Amino acid sequence: MPSFTTQNLYDLLITYGLKVITGLVLLYAGFKIAGYTEKKVIDLLRRHNTLDEMLVRFLGNLTRYGIIAVVVTLVLNQVGVETASIIAVLGTVGLAIGLALQGTLSNIASGVMLMLFKPFTIGQYIEAGGHSGTVKAVNLFTTELATPDNVQIIMPNNAVWGSSVVNYSHHATRRADFTIGISYSDSIEKAMSTLHHVIRNEPRINSEPEAQVVVSELADSSVNITVRVWVASGDYWPVKFDLTRRFKEEFDKAGISIPFPQQDVHIVRE
């Protein structure tokens, strides 16, 4: 057996140490270049107004990971690893790797499907995968949402694509529904006239389709009146909140009561 001397150790460090250092420098530079290129690709694609913002970010993300894959291959070559051998080994254990990475591959495939079919775009408010929020980004592996109180939600793409997507912002208009109960002793005509008055004085309500004010139910303790108005999707919640308050205020002015659950207790004495 050949003896292992200090000179052998020195030669080994010189030979492989320089390769490792060079590989680390290449790896660092490659990650920096990948991030820089991603930003440049996004800026370039944004100049074409025909491209959707979600697709722009997805392509930029794809470019970044592609460059990283090339850099890692170059680094492996630099440190003396035979990439051809690695490819052969990966081919041999391809089934095992596929099973291990099936979730990751599924996320990539789902991301591609989201790009192709576009069930939503950046800035729209959606509900998917058990979460709801405004779409901030769709990346190679994940979809990012922001809740109304600005909490970040990151979901795997397959959780989004594999579930029903409710897009609240897809259509230009939405219908706001209200159910208001009045006492059986109050005038239905007066109540409906008051509701129509509030609706006519709200400029954010669309004239078409026409607003509906109908008696919808004779409930246990109230006569329920349903109001349906159409508004721009962006005005849905402001109109919902404002009309709820104004309906109550106008009912108070008109002397119309809104009943609330009560219990009468009768004490029987022997």
Automatic annotation (TrEMBL):
Domain Mechanosensitive ion channel MscS: 104-170
One GO MF term attached to the UniProt entry: mechanosensitive monoatomic ion channel activity
GO cellular component, one term: plasma membrane
Superkingdom per UniProt: Bacteria
InterPro entries (alphabetical): LSM_dom_sf, MS_channel_1st, MS_channel_C, MscS_archaea/bacteria_type, MscS_beta-dom_sf, MscS_channel_2nd, MscS_channel_C_sf, MscS_channel_TM-2
Pfam family, one: MS_channel_1st
Segments passing through the bilayer: 12-34, 55-77, 83-105
Subcellular location: Cell membrane
Domain Mechanosensitive ion channel transmembrane helices 2/3: 61-102
Keywords: Cell membrane, Membrane, Transmembrane, Transmembrane helix
Topology relative to the membrane: Multi-pass membrane protein
Annotated ranges, domain Mechanosensitive ion channel MscS C-terminal: 177-258
PANTHER family: SMALL-CONDUCTANCE MECHANOSENSITIVE CHANNEL
Family indicated by similarity: Belongs to the MscS (TC 1.A.23) family.
Protein name: Mechanosensitive ion channel
Species of the source: Prosthecochloris vibrioformis (Chlorobium vibrioforme)
